Amino acid sequence: MQARTKRWLKLGIGWAFVAFGVVGLVLPILQGFLFLAIGFGILSQESAWVRRQLERLRRRYPETAAKFDDVHEQAAARIKRLTGRDTGRDTGRDSGSDASKRQ
Predict the structure, then answer these.
(1) Which of 3, 14, 23, 92 would bridge 42 by S-S if both were Cys, CB 3.0 to 4.6 A apart?
(2) Please, how many CA atoms are within 13 Å of residue 25, restricted to the half-sphere of its CB?
(3) What is the mean predicted confidence (pLDDT) over 47-64?
(4) H or E segment to which residue 41 belongs
(5) How many alpha carbons lie under 13 Å from residue 99 in its C-beta half-sphere?
């Protein structure tokens, strides 16, 4: 039961970020793209459709995907340093080969 609640909570938070992102694309106050990226990142953990769409975008825009990977790695390292916990998750990408290609 707890796993089911956690899944619905992630879906709700993810879609809320996506909604803020859509609103942010129109309003100058919110950073729409940032909210969309966060929302889709959260949703990709729970939704196969979102994972497929993100992989399609990664293939279409490889430079942007590499920048997001770098930011994700830096954020995970900072969080690990601050909390002492490993926050890395398996996203289905071969992160080892991506890192070696960029170096």
Answers:
(1) 14
(2) 8
(3) 90
(4) helix 32-44
(5) 9
